[in-house]
Structure formats: structure tokens, C-alpha cells
Structure to design on (267 residues):
């Protein structure tokens, strides 16, 4: 009986998903495929239906904060001391889904704090593991003294960037060869890769959503093994190899989430 009670307590834990700037149909597909994946991996967590991130009647203060954390200098961590009314209005219109934000990059950890204030009062701190799916490009400052684009930033809440699935990993050799030939050729090649990534968003985004739970619950983060489902994919090839098709787990992640009878090493 105690074992059953413990299992029920775990099942009550939820990954609660919020979204902004991403099509509802794409988010629903991601939610449904993630549900199937956690069931197959025997991870005792529920996946909640997604909610829109921004509520109505938001104050300009939150949009000013968003404008301040834009990344302008890739080799310097700097918060903007002054932002114009135009930039604040831009952020408001984006939250209202009236415009898209192409090419703008936001500091990932500071964005977490803003998103947390947006979902305050909408999560149960004892059972919810919040994730925000966004089209914003996010970056964090590395040990090498420069910003790096990221697919996800884990924490409270975790952020998963749909745009980051294309922009963060290194592009294949053909793309860089195309750039030497012609910018137009590279543009076509890049568009083709982006289309392929966006078509598979429901599959490629799953491990990042699940890691939002594993990171806060067990301290389990990204894997260095490029073919593990939970790898921090550095190239587009690694992204597709590890996150679409049959799920492969390294020994560490296998031991962390699977019962012994279901474990299977990569090598």
C-alpha cells in the first residue's frame, strides 16, 4: 500500500506548459507527443494542456523589462539602461500576437524571471513544473566571454525556443559551402533546413520539455553523448539523430529514469 500511495503522489506532479508566439496547433502536437513519450519512458508525470502565456491588462513595466534584456553585443553582458517607447510598444504588440520578433535575441536567464512573473498565481508550486514554449530566440553568456544561442534554458520556468531549434545548432557542411557560392543559394538551403526543423517540432521539442521536469525534480540535465535523446545537440544532424525516430538513452539517463527491466545501453 505505501508503494501505491507514493506512486499516486508522483503521478500528481504535472508539467504545465505555457506558450507565446507559437501556433496553437504546433503546441498541441508537441503536448500530445510528449505525453506518449513520458508514458513509454515510464516517467510518472502528467502533461497539462497548454495555456497562453500572457494574460490581459498587462502593465507596460513588463514590456519595458523585455526590451531591456535584448542582446546587442555578443561579447559583452549588458542590460539596456534606456529603452524607447517604440521598443516597449513593440513588446506589447508581440504579446498581443499582432507581430512576430524575427532576429531579436533575449538573455535567457533574465527572460526566465519575466516569464515567472507572467505565470505567477497560475501554477501550484508543490506539483507543477512550468515550461514556456516561445518563438523568441534566447542566448546565455558562456565561459568564453560571449553569448551563445540556446534551444532551451532549464529552471523555473524552463524555456524552450522553437526558433532556437533551427538557429542554435551548427548548420550542415552543405549550408556553409552554399554561402561561399552565393548568399541566395545559402538562403534557399537555410530555408529548406528550417522547414524540416519546423515540420518535426512536435518530435524535436519533446526531450527539452521532459528535461524541464527531470532537472527540477532530480537534477538530471543535458547529456554530452550526441545520440542520447537528452543530448545538448550542437549540430542539426545531432538534433535529428538523437530526437526523432527511435529513442536512444545513454547509460546515465537510462538509470536515471527507467526501471531496470527497461534499461538499454547505447553501446
Amino acid at each position: 500500500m505505501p508503494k501505491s500511495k507514493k506512486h499516486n503522489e508522483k503521478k500528481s506532479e504535472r508539467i504545465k506548459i505555457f506558450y507565446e508566439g507559437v501556433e496553437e496547433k504546433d503546441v498541441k502536437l508537441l503536448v500530445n507527443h510528449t505525453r506518449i513519450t513520458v508514458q513509454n519512458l515510464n516517467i510518472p508525470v502528467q502533461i497539462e494542456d497548454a495555456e497562453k502565456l500572457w494574460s490581459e491588462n498587462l502593465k507596460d513595466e513588463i514590456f519595458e523589462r523585455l526590451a531591456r534584456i535584448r542582446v546587442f553585443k555578443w561579447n559583452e553582458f549588458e542590460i539596456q539602461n534606456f529603452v524607447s517607447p517604440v521598443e516597449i510598444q513593440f513588446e506589447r504588440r508581440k504579446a498581443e500576437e499582432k507581430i512576430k520578433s524575427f532576429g531579436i535575441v533575449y538573455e535567457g536567464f533574465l527572460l526566465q524571471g519575466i516569464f515567472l512573473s507572467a505565470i505567477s498565481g497560475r501554477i501550484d508550486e508543490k506539483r507543477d513544473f512550468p515550461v514556456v514554449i516561445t518563438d523568441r530566440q534566447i542566448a546565455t553568456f558562456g565561459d568564453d566571454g560571449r553569448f551563445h544561442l540556446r534551444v532551451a534554458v532549464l529552471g523555473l520556468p524552463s524555456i524552450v525556443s522553437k526558433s532556437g531549434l533551427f538557429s542554435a545548432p551548427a548548420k550542415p557542411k552543405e549550408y556553409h559551402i552554399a554561402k561561399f557560392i552565393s548568399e541566395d543559394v545559402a538562403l534557399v538551403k537555410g530555408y529548406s533546413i528550417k522547414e524540416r526543423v519546423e515540420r518535426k517540432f512536435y518530435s524535436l521539442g519533446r526531450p527539452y520539455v521532459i528535461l524541464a521536469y527531470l532537472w527540477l525534480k532530480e537534477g538530471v540535465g543535458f547529456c554530452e553523448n550526441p545520440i542520447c535523446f537528452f543530448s545538448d545537440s550542437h549540430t542539426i544532424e545531432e538534433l535529428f539523430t538523437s530526437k526523432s525516430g527511435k529513442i536512444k538513452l545513454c547509460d546515465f539517463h537510462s538509470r536515471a529514469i527507467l526501471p531496470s527491466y527497461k534499461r538499454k545501453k547505447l553501446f
Q: What stands out?
A: Residues 73 and 147 are 8 Å apart (CA to CA). Residues 2-262 form a domain with the Collagenase (Catalytic Domain) fold (CATH 3.40.390.10). Confidence is low (pLDDT under 50) at residues 1-10.
